Amino acid sequence: LCHMQYISGFGNECVSEDPRCPGSLPEGQNNPQVCPYNLYAEQLSGSAFTCPRSTNKRSWLYRILPSVSHKPFESIDQGHITHNWDEVDPDPNQLRWKPFEIPKASQKRVDFVSGLHTLCGAGDIRSNNGLAIHIFLCNISMTCHLPRKGKLLIYTEFGKMLVQPNEICVIQRGMRFSIDVFEETRGYILEVYGIHFELPDLGPIGANGLANPRDFLIPVAWYEDRQVPGGYTVINKYQGKLFAAKQDVSPFNVVAWHGNYTPYKYNLENFTVINSVAFDHADPSIFTVLTAKSLRPGVAIADFVIFPPRWGVADKTFRPPYYHRNCMSEFMGLIRGHYEAKQGGFLPGGGSLHSTMTPHGPDADCFEKASKAKLAPERIADGTMAFMFESSLSLAVTKWGLEASMCLDKNYYKCWEPLKSHFTPNSRNPTESN
Ligand SMILES: O=C(O)Cc1cc(O)ccc1O
Ligand SMILES: [Fe+2]
Questions:
Q1: Residue 339 annotated as lining a ligand binding site
Q2: Whose CA is closest to atom 10 on ligand 1?
Q3: Is the pLDDT of residue 144 over 80?
Q4: Are 161 and 287 in the same domain?
Q5: Which of 304, 357, 360 to mutate to test ligand 1, by most ligand atoms within 8 A of the CB atom?
Q6: What is the domain range of residue 392?
Q7: Of all protein residues, whose CA lies closest to atom 12 belonging to ligand 1?
């Protein structure tokens, strides 16, 4: 567990062999008549064959048995996963959730899959256009492993990743994985249909900054040669529904692979923050880690944005986030600490949704404090990490989100109620407010 190895880079062409089988990657071709070590070759396509080179994604896997070696898939219980955006009527209000409750292992044993809960989303899986936001709340591993604290151990066909709090990971479409947890564990999932995350363009920022490609980490090949009759269950989320198939061989039987379609992880501490050093609040797009683009230039199906610890130095400026109505939808979550626009009520493990054109902004306490604050350089968000999934789609909330989770904060609107008019019609001087 402590000696995880990774390849560094974003979207690069990688090669990886499990060191137990040197020379397992075929040389100079993808499909030898017989592969080294008598492995099977299998291609995993993450883009249409004909995509331009810049967006073409695929990997070649050399495995003990091909993925097709399984019994038929059968429908299984959906749990709290849904892609039905018409479960409840649309709600244009500001929504906020208290920390989603993780079941206690002593009361109910829940693994990653049965602990998935869809909170909101939009679009259509079958036409590859849309997204879903899920919360996972679980307390046991999908397989049996040693307890460790506060981490996810993710087995994938490409190798193993240890994902710690304040790290994110991306598992791409069709990649088989299994998640071990070591205690009661909660997390946020952004699922985008049919597109892949990219690093945002940097424009005038230049060649470096924000999330740098070399800080993305890709697992190295690792296989297990285990066969247990009917011993493995592969769960397939297909057209939004869950199906399970039994197989005798571990799905993590890839001895070597090469390609540019891989899972990866990233530590949010590595984000190089860019911000205003003179005056005014810069738009939060400066904090974009990854973007899943729509076909309209500059418009994302989903941006993943973070609010990392940084210096606030802007002069003559109201420094917290401004009041806002956005044609984009903003789902926010908090990994740790507290968020700069809210004095209370927005807690780690909770969330908020300000969907299309829903007004939002600093609560009354925050406005009063920030309007009077002495503008010395100050540390903002030290020890904290808030994030936003921002989407051009108008997000619908599920029945679980509005009702069954029992975490909806019915009093959210009250945080803005104390806002009062400071208007001084006879004096332009802002310091003479009442
Ligand atoms: O707090 C929010 O809702 C997100 C947000 C952050 C910011 O810096 C500017 C505008 C905005 O909506
Ligand atoms: Fe906003």
A1: yes
A2: 321
A3: no
A4: no
A5: 360
A6: 272-412
A7: 324
Q: Are strands 241-249 and 74-75 parallel, antiparallel or unpaired?
A: antiparallel
How many domains does the chain contain in total?
2
Residue 257 lies in a domain: no
d(CA 366, CA 279): 19
With a cut of 60, say whether residue 145 has pLDDT above it. Answer: no
pLDDT in tens, 289-307: 999 999 999 999 999 999 9
The answer to whether the complex's ipTM is over 0.90 is yes
Q: Is the CB of 321 under 6 A from ligand 1?
A: yes
Same-domain pairing of 351 and 236? no
The CB of 324 under 6 Å from ligand 1? The reply is yes
Q: Would you say 83 is a known binding-site residue? A: no
Q: 338 among the known binding-site residues?
A: no
* 402 or 2, greater pLDDT: 402
Contacts of 131 (CB under 8 A, 6+ apart): 121, 122, 123, 190, 191, 192, 193, 292, 301, 302, 389, 391, 393
Neighbouring C-beta atoms of residue 48, cutoff 10 Å? 10
Q: How far is CA 179 from CA 113, 136, 140, 145, 380, in A?
A: 9, 11, 9, 10, 34
Does residue 281 carry a catalytic annotation? yes
Task: Quote the CA–CA distance of 84 and 308 in Å, as a whole number.
Answer: 33
Residue nearest to atom 5 of ligand 1 (CA): 321
Total length of the chain: 434
pLDDT of 150 above 90? no
pLDDT category at 1 given cuts 50, 70, 90 is low
What pTM was computed for the model? 0.96
Determine the atom of ligand 1 nearest the C-alpha atom of 320. 8
Residue 133 Cβ < 6 Å to ligand 1: no
Using an 8 Å Cβ cutoff, are 156 and 139 in contact? Answer: no
